[in-house]
Amino acid sequence: MPDLRGLLVDYGGVLTNPLTETVQAWLRADGIDPQRFVDLMRRWMGSGAEHNAVHDLETGRIAAADFERLLAAELAAEDGTVPPYEGMLARMFAGFRPDEVMLAAVRRARAAGIRTGLLSNSWGFDYPREGWSELFDAVVISGEVGLRKPDPAIYALAADRLGLRAECIVFVDDLSPNVRAATAAGMVGVLHSDVPATIAELEGLLGMSLQ
After folding, report:
1. Which of 37, 40, 176, 183 keeps 20 to 30 A from 46, CA to CA?
2. pTM of the complete model
């Protein structure tokens, strides 16, 4: 096992409540058929095209407002009713709540000398960045760097900004493709689904108490 001296974490679903919770709440509030949304995401993300609307949004190739118009049009009801597109992304993520236990674990790791970083695919999300300077040594947001997970280049960039070799970094994400890509890039991957289990795994990897 290499000397693990870095901790890189995702934002939504790792440092917050699960993404599914906030998306489901938004679908209910906007009266959108959940299956229609699931089918659309499968179609867009599984298209095999070099670019799709989600990838373009995450890498900053299209503006959030343009993505909202596209998304609303695709989510129109059977009777042709189109959900209001203005502010759609803000409503989608309005249910995000910080996970104080995970945040505290990152703080403790940094206080113990671990270099910490955030690596997040953005959906036009206005991140609440207060206190980030005390929490992270490096921040990589997809829309700001023109790269997105699971592109190998974004992991290399994050490692460079942390000042560490990939082999010295633990990466935590709630999506398995992103974890697999981090592992392929040389990092130690942790798939997050449960806070106590993730913290226990990190404690074992980093050799320190995070609680």
Report:
1. 183
2. 0.93
